[in-house]
Design a protein that fits this description.
847 residues, 4-stranded antiparallel sheet, Znf_RING, WD40/YVTN_repeat-like_dom_sf
Length: 847
């Protein structure tokens, strides 16, 4: 069990305080001692009973006094009832009538505002009195007293009091609870329930723990609602529900019955109980064994919140209460009262009254703060910011920041400032100066506001100077991250220049200075630094700020830094830096000049045409693999100049191409065969030219070279008749792979024959299919009606009187003639289609 101290300042003044063990589990209730007038009363007297109304409290004492107090404990009225103990005070629901009974047998039921009512002295102690809940509104004015008998009093129509004995013979009545039409009472035997509407007793619930004296361990009763009764007696707890009996049940039984839905044993003795939603609140009397004497002694009472099950319970919370004089109290000295309007629970003991109430969000937040759970406290405050009264998010957040700073988590504290301080500029500046004082400006630098909210420039400059003195990289990082308009740029530039006097080659400072110049729109200075450092951002700077006019004399530097980016940038912006200007700037760097012109040529073969002659030498010197593609694609290259350069450098492949392009194919073929000695290339060249004389030259050159003959035999079969080559081979010449070559020639020949035959079969088949289709079409009938006309006389083809005999000739081309209108009698072909060369069409005659 976790024992926690839940008291306000007054409650903490208890003389019976003992060391508490703190729990990580948050308590469910908070406690405060009822003070003011209550304190004065209990210093001179002792509480014997108390009843709670939503608007006030009614306290009975051992000296026979009854006090009415407000909820803060201030006395509003006092009644001197007797000289002995007041046993019970009862109120109706309206709070306008009060019932009082005392140990000397006095019973009073009066109106608080009228002073009229019932006054009676009995010859025995009256332990309990209970007013009808609607006493003030009912005409019968019912109430019940309990001593040796349970008596019901009601006023009749003559305005006289009538007494009815509800129960007797089982000892003293110790408790009565009236709810609606149901009355529950207890005696030494058990608990009974009476239905006032049907005037029937509906149940008897026996006492379980017969070993405990009923006068020392009193029965506690509490109605949870109109039909649910909670009973606590010694260590036993029962939850009972009153239910309606089935009307079809014909037995002579009450119309209602009681079902016990939960029954369990508690750890300690029950002094009082009350409902809390679906849970129960139990006030328990605790005895503990002293180790020194092995004797029981009275410990502090406990207030537990439980969830009841059919035969057991689950403990939700348990608090030990520091009640004044708890060492001398017995179980019967404690009682628990609750207010239906609010979740308020009053723990009454002879020398103390403690109020317990459910904890609200302020209490929850306060507990979290006490446990240093600031993150959870902030979250709870954000969720319930409309309901909290004693706390606010800003104060919680600042306490959190203070806690993190004290703990040494400066970065964590700075990070939280973003959320906590929000847009409060004064608070931000105070925090910055605080971090400066403790030497942690760097920690807060990355979290400073730099959006819509801006601090004074001096704040940002102070942090920049801090970094500049000790951390160049951090300084550079802030310059990159912070907008350039939140501080005085020129002031920072001067400071950087001062540091560069001491470290002129520091790349970090130079790069940062270039960025500062960029923010200040002094792009020429920034560009100069970037080029000096060969910084990757130089091209981005040029593009972003259109600095092409500033780089016309820096093209070589850009090319030496990054050829690819520089060339792409220059080609993309020809309108700003002309091709002629670039070529002129690169004249002393021919290799770079070649790179630029080569990329220009790849983009457009015609833009740099006037430099094509110059490019021949550049390709020959720096990029021979691309020379031949250049010669093939260029239409502006002087062939004679190119041939001269290629011959000087003995570039055979390029020379062969140029000779071929200039029409000297025979010389080109000669170079291939004599200098390259590559029969495959020679054959390929001959195939490209498709010249019979060139094939003849190739055969003549190859006739005394067996490898060439083999290559020709393998490749010329589809271009030249192999017989021409075979006839010219000298007898006795040894030719490598001759047999394979001849076999291949024959296979190629057979393949050609098969292809021809296959094509012939396909053509014949297609012709036959089309002929059949045409014949079938020509056999079809032709429709002739009044809309058709004679192609010769242009009158309707059918006569007006179809009963007369007439002759019509219809050709397959659908041209129609009267037989008498044919240009030539017996004509077999349509003269119209014949004139158009559509081919013959046989005629059809029809009478």
């Amino acid at each position: 069990m976790a024992e926690v101290e839940q008291e306000t300042q007054n409650y903490e003044e208890s003389t019976d305080e003992s060391e508490e063990e703190e729990s990580e589990e948050e308590p469910k209730l908070k406690y405060e001692r009822l003070a003011n007038g209550m304190t004065e009363i209990l210093q001179k007297d002792a509480a014997s009973c108390m009843t709670v109304h939503d608007k006030f409290l009614a306290l009975g004492t051992h000296q026979g006094k009854v006090y009415l107090l407000d909820v803060q404990g201030n006395v509003t009225q006092r009644f001197d009832i007797s000289t002995v103990k007041v046993n019970q005070v009862s109120l109706d629901e309206s709070g306008e009538h009060i019932g009082i009974c005392s140990e000397d047998g006095k019973v009073q039921v009066v109106g608080l505002y009228t002073r009229e009512g019932f006054h009676e002295n009995f010859d025995c102690p009256i332990k309990i009195v209970a007013l009808h809940p609607q006493f003030g509104r009912s005409s019968s004015k019912q109430f019940i007293t309990g001593g040796n008998k349970l008596l019901l009093y009601e006023r009749n129509w003559l305005n006289r009091w009538k007494t009815i004995v509800l129960h007797e013979g089982e000892g003293t009545i110790t408790n009565i609870k009236w709810r609606g039409n149901l009355v529950a009472w207890s005696n030494r035997v058990g608990v009974k329930i009476y239905d006032a509407s049907s005037k029937q007793r509906i149940t008897n619930i026996s006492r379980d723990n017969i070993n405990f004296r009923p006068d020392m361990y009193l029965c506690s009763l509490c109605w949870k609602d109109n039909i649910t009764l909670i009973i606590g007696w010694a260590t036993s707890v029962k939850v009972c529900v009153v239910k309606e009996r089935d009307p079809t049940d014909l037995r002579d039984l009450p119309t209602r019955y009681v079902e016990i839905v939960s029954a369990f044993e508690s750890e300690f003795h029950i002094s009082g109980l009350a409902p809390l939603g679906e849970r129960l609140v139990l006030l328990m009397y605790v005895k503990e064994m002293l180790e020194q004497t092995d004797k029981d002694h009275c410990a502090r009472p406990r207030l537990d919140i439980i969830h009841h099950l059919p035969d057991s319970y689950e403990e939700i919370s348990s608090d030990a209460l520091s009640v004044r004089g708890f060492q001398e109290n017995e179980c019967r000295d404690y009682s628990l009262e609750h207010s239906d309007g609010e979740s308020l629970f009053y723990i009454i003991s002879p020398r103390d009254v403690v109020v317990a109430k459910e904890r609200d969000q302020d209490d929850h937040i306060e507990w979290l703060l006490g446990k240093k759970k600031y993150e959870e406290a902030m979250m709870a405050a954000e969720i319930s910011q409309k309901n909290i009264k004693r706390h606010n998010i800003l104060d919680i957040g600042r306490a959190y920041v203070n806690y993190l700073v004290d703990k040494g988590d400066y970065h964590g504290a700075a990070r939280k400032c973003q959320k906590i301080l929000g847009k409060n500029m004064d608070l931000w500046e105070n925090e910055v100066y605080r971090f400066k004082k403790i030497g942690q400006l760097k920690a807060i630098s990355q979290y400073l506001p730099r959006g819509d909210l801006r601090l004074r420039p001096a704040i940002y400059e102070m942090i920049l100077y801090e970094f500049l003195e000790s951390d160049y990289e951090g300084f550079a990082s802030l310059i990159r991250e912070w907008p350039g308009d939140i501080y005085n740029n020129m002031t920072v530039v001067r400071s950087v220049l001062d540091h560069l006097d001491r470290a002129p080659s520091n790349r970090t400072l130079l790069t940062t200075l270039a960025e500062l110049y960029t923010y200040d729109q002094r792009y020429d200075k920034a560009l100069e630094i970037y080029l000096k450092l060969r910084h990757k951002d130089v091209f981005q700077l040029i593009h972003k700020h259109n600095l092409f006019s500033s780089i016309k004399d820096k093209i070589v530097l850009l090319m030496e830094f990054d050829k690819e980016q520089a060339v792409n940038m220059l080609l993309d912006n020809e309108d700003k830096i002309s091709i002629d200007k670039v070529v002129e700037e690169l004249k002393d760097q021919p290799e770079l000049q070649h790179v630029y012109l080569h990329n220009l040529f790849k983009r457009d073969h015609h833009k740099g045409q006037k430099f094509h002659e110059q490019q021949i030498s550049l390709y020959a010197e720096y990029d021979r693999p691309n020379l031949l593609p250049f010669l093939r694609d260029s239409t502006h290259c002087p062939l004679e100049k190119a041939l001269e350069i290629c011959q000087q450098r003995n570039f055979v492949a390029e020379t062969v191409f140029l000779l071929s392009r200039m029409g000297n194919s025979r010389r080109a073929l000669q170079m291939i065969t004599e200098e390259l000695q590559d029969v495959d290339k020679a054959i390929e060249f001959a195939k490209e030219q498709d010249d019979a004389e060139l094939w003849e030259d190739l055969i003549s050159h190859s006739i005394d070279k067996p490898p060439f003959i083999t290559g020709l035999l393998n490749n010329i079969g589809t271009h030249v008749d192999p017989i021409l080559l075979i006839h010219r081979i000298k007898e006795g010449m040894e030719i490598p792979n001759l047999r394979d070559s001849l076999v291949k020639i024959l296979q190629d020949y057979n393949l050609q024959i098969l292809l021809r035959e296959g094509c012939k079969k396909i053509i014949v088949s297609d012709c036959l299919t089309l002929l059949k289709k045409m014949h079938k079409t020509q056999l079809r009938g032709v429709s002739v009606d009044e809309e058709n006309i004679c192609e010769s006389c242009h009158s309707p083809i059918l006569p007006a009187d179809t009963a007369k005999t007439f002759n019509v000739v219809v050709f397959h081309c659908r041209h129609m003639f009267h037989k008498d209108c044919l240009p030539t009698p017996g004509m077999q072909f349509c003269n119209i289609c014949s004139a158009k060369r559509r081919g013959p069409a046989g005629g059809l005659s029809e009478a």
